[in-house]
Design brief:
heterodimer, A: alpha/beta, OB fold (Dihydrolipoamide Acetyltransferase, E2P), Rossmann fold, 3 domains, 13 helices, 22 strands, B: Rossmann fold, two-stranded antiparallel ribbon, 11 helices, globular, binds thiamine diphosphate, binds magnesium ion
């Protein structure tokens, strides 16, 4: 069988080149690995080696020809007894015609999104079931206790689950989330690390590749910036890069966002940062029940989960259902308060302002529907859109910075999916576009406030 | 007191010893006052006191010259006072007021003074180490003979960027002195629980960096080691590592469970190793100063600290417009 030798691409960006020189002539015996030609591009001259063995039957492109497209046949190798003349010299092909793009979007229904947000949306039907059966016994507990229970229960249930981080063991946790876990599970499963975020995050990701289910506690998420490469490049992308072979079941958790008076380097909300990353799941609970149910789901999830807690919420108490195995699925928003005039969407500590604002608005005769997204990847768009179609107005509340915020993303989605239902622009309430100041008076102004939420809600209601 | 070692002979002059006494005492009294103001709610957030470690910065500052730079972590009040920054400005930053070094916008962990070549005040453990090497890079590039004192803790010594900085600092002969303030704990984790390295300074050997361990509770030993390191750096033989064996008496920050060490351990360090008492003994037993002389200094220092506290209480909060300034140059 005669073999064609094709014009090679000698760099990832090369599209064509000059066949500068032939180093073989017709009739020569060729060995694989032998240099047969010199090829020039605008960047360099390179030697081109034969891959196949055979006699050079015919040189199809003359020395000195410029503009030879990559993959054009330039020579024919023949086996013993074959004649090159039997081989048809193919006409160098022009760029292949691209197939027509699939169906133009003309016929699409108007209310179908033209641009989807695939990564963050929830596959399948919206889950409208209640989070726990009616009549379930409830117990009041703090967010801190809820998180601890979730970890303890999952560690009891699965030997592969372990906790790792700074001061999680002997110190009982910098914020006491892991209090008592060392006593119960021992130092094989509650691992104190040196202050080495990049290192231990990487080790935990490796351990997840190796079959374990690590929970990594960052003392605060500010310090996860030291480790962000291992979170994003190593944990989030490996399943994809391995063609689905190697997943990374891991939870990165810890307090996120501003505490109180701890200044610029210790006060930052990473919700929007992580929510951008395909391959990660991102959870940001507000209540204790959600903290518990979602953390248990996170630990069982086969993917890397970023679990954003909040120091200020740790000590707050909420009712939590008393159930043997209580979990909350990802991608299911919670409607905290039904309303008819304006939709307020928030998550995490932003809910504090959203709910306070809703109370104040009620006093002024404005009925606000308050939605807690609970998870930011996936996001329950349906619940938001459905609500906006009812209230025709929406504001969003979060602690993070305004540019590229979760609120921005929701506003875009609402515009795409419910444009005709909107009676006012969607407003995003966020932290101010400044690093967090230390001074008490400035710090108050840097954060989003209930008054600003009330103001915004009134303005979209034209009140 | 009885357990204290009798002071060895020193050839430090009276003036020198008095100066160290005064500078260390200023830091201690300042920090005690800061602790008090914190308790009164005038200081918020994280506040890490330097009490116990005073000899480290005072001894090293004694080896520095004008133009030398310094950079450290959040446990930074002592470094600022030792390099000559004004107690009023530091205290007012702690209370978050306009008169503070960062106009109230930085707080306890984030203060800077270009004038005194103090480059902060950094909250992320380990982050200041490459920065310090970078300051030294600039000096070498500019061709002057300044050195940079880059301070970090025993806990920080386990961060990866420290070793990346070591490698480049040696590769490029940067005039940086890496000062490990080994106070034996990183929050509640003792050095023994964070590494099997027998000593932290020896890790420099892997990069070809010289170093030594120093009694960081002895200001004279610190100064002597500092002079040696500085000389090496100025002669183009930098970097250099000094591991200061020291101890913090107070909690890691104002909130500290204090369960990771015994009260006796702390008391023993105070009784046997206290850096200020050490210099006091040298002065008194060497007949270089009387009790009354030292009492007079105490009084003076108290006045400076009280004045700083008053200033920090009276200075107004920053104007609201300050929220929006200093984001871009
Ligand atoms: C990257 C990072 N991780 C964790 C923390 C939380 N943290 C603040 S100080 C500290 C201990 C540091 O100990 P060490 O370096 O020995 O300094 P010391 O406090 O003893 O002066 C920790 C874990 C942080 N600020 N930055
Ligand atoms: Mg330490």
């Amino acid at each position: 069988m005669a073999t064609q030798v094709l014009m090679p691409a000698l760099s990832p960006t090369m599209e064509e080149g000059t066949l500068a020189k032939w180093l073989v002539k017709e009739g020569d015996e060729g060995k694989s690995g032998q240099i047969i030609a010199e090829i020039e591009t605008d960047k360099a001259t390179m030697e081109f080696e034969a891959v196949d063995e055979g006699t050079v039957g015919k040189l199809l492109v003359a020395e000195g020809t410029a503009g030879v497209k990559v993959n054009t046949p330039i020579a024919v190798l023949v086996e013993e007894g074959e004649s090159a003349d039997e081989v048809q010299a193919p006409v160098p092909t022009q760029k292949e015609k691209q197939p027509e793009p699939a169906e133009a979007s003309e016929g699409k229904a108007v209310d179908e999104p033209l641009v989807s947000s695939p990564g963050a949306s929830v596959p399948g039907k919206r889950d409208r079931s209640p989070d726990w059966p009616e009549g379930t016994q409830m117990k009041s507990m703090t967010v801190r206790e809820a998180l601890r229970e979730a970890m303890a229960e999952e560690m009891r249930g699965d030997e592969h689950v372990f906790l790792m981080g700074e001061e999680v063991g002997e110190y009982q946790g910098a914020y006491k989330i892991s209090q008592g876990l060392l006593d119960e599970f021992g130092d094989r499963r509650v691992v104190d690390t040196p202050i080495t975020e990049h290192g231990f995050a990487g080790i935990a990701v490796g351990a997840a590749f190796g079959g374990l289910r690590p929970i990594v506690e960052f003392m605060t998420f500010n310090f996860a910036m030291q480790a962000i490469d291992q979170i994003i490049n190593s944990a989030a992308k490996t399943l994809y890069m391995s063609g689905g072979q190697m997943g990374c079941p891991i939870v990165f958790r810890g307090p996120n966002g501003a505490a109180a008076r701890v200044g610029a380097q210790h006060s930052q909300d990473y919700a929007a940062w992580y929510a951008q990353i395909p391959g990660l799941k991102v959870v940001m609970p507000y209540s204790a029940a959600d903290a518990k149910g979602l953390l248990k789901s996170a630990i069982r999830d086969p993917n890397p989960v970023i679990f954003l807690e909040n120091e200020i919420l740790y000590g707050r108490s909420f009712d939590v259902p008393v159930m043997d195995d209580f979990t909350i699925p990802f991608g299911k928003a919670r409607i905290w308060r039904e309303g008819t005039d304006v939709t307020i969407v928030s998550f995490g500590i932003g809910m504090t302002y959203a709910l306070e604002a809703a109370d104040k608005l009620a006093d002024e005769g404005i009925s606000a529907e308050v939605i807690d997204l609970r998870t930011l990847r996936p996001i329950d768009y349906d619940t938001v859109i459905e609500s906006v179609k009812k209230t025709n107005r929406c504001i969003t509340v979060e602690e993070g910075w305004p540019v590229g915020s979760i609120g921005n993303h929701l506003a875009a989605t609402i515009m795409q999916q419910a444009f005709d239902w909107l009676d006012a622009p969607v407003l995003n309430l966020t932290g101010k576009d400044v690093p967090m100041p230390y001074a008490a008076n400035l710090e108050k102004h840097a954060l989003v406030t209930t008054a600003e939420v009330v103001e915004a809600a009134k303005s979209v209601c034209y009140r | 007191m009885a357990t204290r070692k009798s002071p060895e002979q020193s050839n430090a002059s009276k003036e020198e010893l008095v100066r160290y006494y005064r500078e260390m005492l200023l830091i201690r009294r300042f920090e005690e006052k800061a602790g008090q103001l914190y308790g009164m709610g005038l200081i918020g957030g994280f506040c890490h006191l330097y009490i116990g470690q005073e000899a480290v910065v005072v001894g090293l500052e004694a080896a520095a010259k004008e133009g030398d730079k310094r950079i450290t972590s959040y446990r930074d009040h002592g470094h600022m006072l030792a390099c000559g920054m004004d107690a009023k400005g530091v205290m007012a930053e702690l209370t978050g007021r306009e008169g503070g070094y960062s106009k109230g916008k930085g707080g306890s962990m984030h203060m800077f003074s270009k004038e005194k070549h103090f480059y902060g005040g950094h909250g992320i453990v380990g982050a200041q180490v490459p920065l310090g090497a970078g300051l030294a890079f600039a000096d070498r590039y500019l061709g002057n003979d300044n050195v940079t004192f880059t301070y970090f803790g025993d806990g920080a010594a386990n961060q990866g960027q420290v070793y990346e900085a070591y490698n480049m600092a040696k590769l490029w002969s940067l005039p940086v002195i890496f000062v490990i303030e080994n106070n034996q704990y990183a929050m509640g984790t003792s050095v023994k629980r964070s590494t099997k390295s027998p000593s932290l300074w020896e890790r420099g050997a892997a990069y070809g960096i010289k170093g030594e361990s120093v009694d960081g509770m002895d200001v004279l030993a610190v100064k002597a080691a500092g002079e040696k390191a500085v000389a090496a750096c100025r002669a183009g033989q930098g970097p250099y590592i000094l591991e200061m064996m020291t101890y913090r008496y107070r909690g890691h920050s104002m909130s500290d469970p204090a369960k990771y060490r015994t009260r006796e351990e702390v008391q023993r360090m105070r009784d046997e190793k206290d850096a200020i008492e050490h210099v006091r003994d040298l002065l008194i037993q060497g007949n270089l100063a009387t009790d009354d002389d030292l009492k007079a200094i105490d009084k003076e220092i108290k006045a400076v600290v009280n004045e700083a506290a008053d200033f920090a209480k009276e200075s107004p909060e920053p104007a609201l417009e300050e929220l929006w300034t200093d984001i871009y140059a």
